[in-house]
Specification:
The complex is a heterodimer. Chain A is mostly helical. Chain A is built from 17 helices and no strands. The longest helix of chain A has 35 residues. Chain B has a single domain, classed as MetI-like fold (Orthogonal Bundle). Chain B has 14 helices and two strands, in the order ααββαααααααααααα. The chains are: A mainly alpha, B mainly alpha.
Chain lengths: 425, 353
């Protein structure tokens, strides 16, 4: 998919023209071609350039007729104003808690996987029964603990659903490790350390959210960045696990489940909009980070993309690892994940961008200024302060800067991601 | 894309090594296979759980809700097909469908053609085409809210779009009267009729065609989605074997003929994909409408998803979850039929070659 393999289809660039006249004509043609490309590039960027120049204009000048290209006076202070203004709204504790708890969950998983993966050398340490009971107990304890923690501010329904979902996910982790016949002392240790780390992250990120304030631009950036990163990472962990199973393991129902997954990708999002809202409202997750993260913990497109990628890489490495006695989990962690790095990075970028640019879902679920993401905040801000177009445009530019910066660093992965998306059909 | 499909098929058939565990041959194939299956279920458990609740469960629930009267606070009340008949007789819903129909049949062909054109330009082997590819695609990575916000400002009565028209008209010695792009319900055909001194009455609203505001939103959408699809075409173009072009040019085909008879047939699967994805996306347009017009002026930019959103949340009265779900299913059915027709039509074309 590199440009080097491009073939000449357009009007210029016929290979190996000979003779002076031909070269001269080609040179002119090429110059005109570049002019065309530059012109298209400028046209595509015009809205952004105009908006960027607009951010430095004064309150009256921004909507004055006729609009001028350059500001008469460069007001760089507009950019500062966006960050220093308090747009109103106090931080609600449960919003901050949900952000913290979702971060904690990410830390818990990362720590658990990192420590648990090397737990395979049999016959030493704790007995199977004691170890299994202890790690089960710890997983349940973690779930109950986070349920109670949420319950300090939230309602009973939220308390129960959060407790159950975190317990379930932790138990799945224990189950996976159990399958690799682990040394139990290590699993219990990993579990305990992961729980502590998760609790610490929960508390830390919750405090940070409270510190960032309610209706402030800093808080909106914090919300958006945190949600995007957590969502992309958790999705990456679970999608890659499922993709490994679909690509490499044999189990009854594999074809059916995979086929079902493909079919579910064609479903228009509008169909699940209202019923998903009802479910989330009943769980009392409205206005929390759970509403945006839990329904998309795993995503069909991500699994599909990674499965296709894994199927295309040879099995030799895994087979030799298998002969050496590695467990499925170790193969997944040490062999599959490193091999799938380019696809994982592509998926991470797509998911990050997906959350950062999402508007409908956050608009549906988040309704107080302390929980808004940038997109929602921007649209509300524009409605409430119709005169302050310059400040709105500053907000739009800051919002656009993050995906644009990411894009210029990782453009190769974006291109691959979009063409992978082509496999979807 | 073609390169990745071949190994996949082989991978599935490939012989697996016998399960040799480190504890000698103690475990026979039976328990090993069982263990493999059990491990696999653990690995896909998160996906299964989330899907069972948030896809299967939610859709089953939606089907139930669509047959009831439900406002989120009291128990659902069974009403049969009432919601569906109400939706099909609802002036606003029909109106939104007609609006989006215009939107789809105008935006999808133009953005597909534009994307293909841009991709063909970038596929030319010149130095720096990679750079231009990045530049062309860059605006598409920003959120639709940002772009809509900027266009909102550009479309103001005192904005740059009116300035551009003023300059353009002045070049021909005419005078452009600045218009309010986002609040102009005049339909396309209505405007043409008015130019000839006639008009189309509001009873015949469906003959008025897309309003000026709606066309402004279309323009914005084409502007931002064409580069996304351009990348898909570009990836596919680079998979076209160069030999085909050589053969065609030896046979004396012009560049246009090569494009028409080599490029387009080779790209048919991707064209289908782009058209289908574009159709599914445009039928569900929401962000721009929510930010720019809230469905106005005179409902000329109302869309089904916007209606579903407002009815479900109850921004215009008590929430009507059942009614909103029924509309969602009707919309899904229409999208399904639409993509089916496209698939038939474009795939039939493939057989010709």
């Amino acid at each position: 998919m590199t440009v080097a393999t491009a073939n000449p289809t357009g009007s210029v660039g016929t290979p190996r023209g000979s003779g002076i006249r031909v070269t001269a004509r080609r040179r002119i043609g090429r110059a005109l071609f570049y002019v065309l490309l530059i012109a298209i590039g400028i046209i595509l960027f015009t809205p952004f350039i105009l908006a960027l120049l607009g951010t430095f204009k004064g309150d009256a000048e921004i909507t004055a007729w006729p609009p001028s290209l350059l500001p008469s006076e460069w007001l760089f202070g507009n950019w500062l104003k966006l960050f220093t203004t308090d747009f109103g709204g106090l931080p609600r504790p449960e919003g901050a808690t949900s952000l913290g708890l979702m971060t904690g969950m990410l830390f818990f998983f990362a720590a658990f996987l990192l420590m648990g993966m090397s737990s395979e050398s049999k016959g030493e340490g704790m007995s199977r029964r004691t170890g299994l009971t202890l790690s089960f107990g710890l997983a349940v304890l973690g779930g109950i603990g986070s349920g109670l923690y949420v319950g300090l501010d939230g309602g009973t329904a939220m308390q129960i659903t959060v407790g159950i979902s975190i317990t379930t996910v932790a138990l799945i982790g224990v189950g996976i490790l159990t399958m690799s016949e682990p040394e139990w002392r290590r699993v219990v240790l990993a579990m305990a350390v992961a729980l502590l780390l998760g609790a610490f992250a929960t508390f830390l990120f919750e405090r940070l959210a409270v510190l960032a304030g309610g209706g402030r631009f800093v808080r909106w950036m914090y919300n958006t960045a945190l949600l995007s990163v957590i969502r992309a990472f958790i999705m990456l962990i679970f999608s890659s696990m499922a993709a490994y199973a679909f690509a490499r393991l044999r189990f009854p129902g594999r074809k059916f489940i995979f086929g079902f997954m493909l079919a579910s990708m064609m479903l228009p999002g509008a169909v699940t909009l209202i019923p998903a809202f009802i479910v989330i409202a009943k769980a009392q997750w409205i206005n929390t980070a759970y509403s945006l993260i839990i329904p998309v913990l795993v995503n069909a497109f991500g699994i599909f993309l990674l499965t296709q990628f894994l199927k295309a890489i040879p099995r030799d490495l895994e087979e030799s690892a298998f002969i050496d006695g590695a467990s499925y989990f170790q193969i997944y962690w040490y062999v599959i994940l490193p091999l799938a790095k380019p696809a994982l990075l592509t998926l991470f970028i797509l998911q990050f961008q997906g959350m950062w640019n999402d508007f409908l879902t956050p608009l549906l679920y988040l309704n107080t200024p302390d929980m808004w993401v940038l997109n929602v905040a921007l649209s509300v801000f524009q409605q409430n302060y119709t005169a302050a177009w310059n400040i709105t445009l500053v907000g739009a530019m800051v919002n656009a800067a993050v995906p644009l910066t990411m894009f210029f660093f990782f453009s190769k992965y974006y291109m691959e991601g979009v063409s992978y998306a082509g496999l979807k059909g | 894309m073609a390169a990745t499909t071949e190994p996949q098929q082989n991978a599935g058939r490939r012989l697996r090594l016998p399960r040799l565990r480190r504890d000698g041959g103690r475990a026979s194939l039976g328990p090993a296979a069982k263990k493999e299956a059990l491990t696999a279920y653990f690995f896909i458990a998160p996906y299964l759980l989330i899907t069972l609740v948030f896809t299967v469960g939610v859709i089953a629930f939606a089907i139930y809700v669509s047959f009831t009267d439900f406002n989120l606070f009291t128990a659902p009340e069974w009403t049969g097909f009432d919601n569906y008949t109400k939706a099909l007789g609802d002036q606003k819903f029909i109106r939104s469908l007609v609006n989006v129909f215009w939107y789809v049949i105008i935006v999808v062909p133009i953005q597909t053609a534009l994307a293909l054109l841009l991709a063909s330009l970038l596929n030319v082997k010149v130095r720096g085409s990679r750079f231009f590819r990045t530049i062309f695609y860059a605006p598409s990575v920003t959120s639709s809210v940002v772009i809509t916000m900027i266009f909102f400002w550009l479309y103001l009565k005192t904005g740059f779009i009116n300035l551009a028209f003023t300059k353009l008209w002045a070049a021909f010695g005419a005078e452009w009267e600045a218009i309010n792009w986002l609040n102009n319900p005049t339909g396309l055909f209505q405007g043409i009729a008015q130019a000839f001194g006639g008009d189309i009455s509001s009873d015949l609203w469906y003959l008025r065609g897309p309003s000026v505001t709606w066309m402004a939103i279309m323009f914005q959408n084409i502007f931002t989605t064409a580069p996304t699809f351009m990348i898909m075409f570009l990836a596919a173009l680079q998979d076209v074997p160069p030999g085909l072009y050589e053969a065609a040019s030896i046979d004396g085909a012009t560049k246009w003929q090569q494009f028409r008879h080599v490029t387009v047939p080779m790209l048919r699967p991707v064209i289908l994909l782009v058209v289908v994805l574009g159709t599914i996306g445009t039928w569900q347009i929401f962000d721009q409408v929510k930010i720019l017009t809230a469905g106005g002026p005179l409902d000329t930019t109302l869309t089904p998803v916007y209606l579903i959103f407002t009815e479900g949340l109850g921004t215009l009265g008590p929430p009507r979850m059942g009614f909103a779900s029924a509309m969602a299913f009707l919309l899904a059915a229409i999208i399904f039929v639409f993509t089916l027709i496209q698939r038939r039509y474009i795939e039939r074309g493939t057989e010709m070659y």
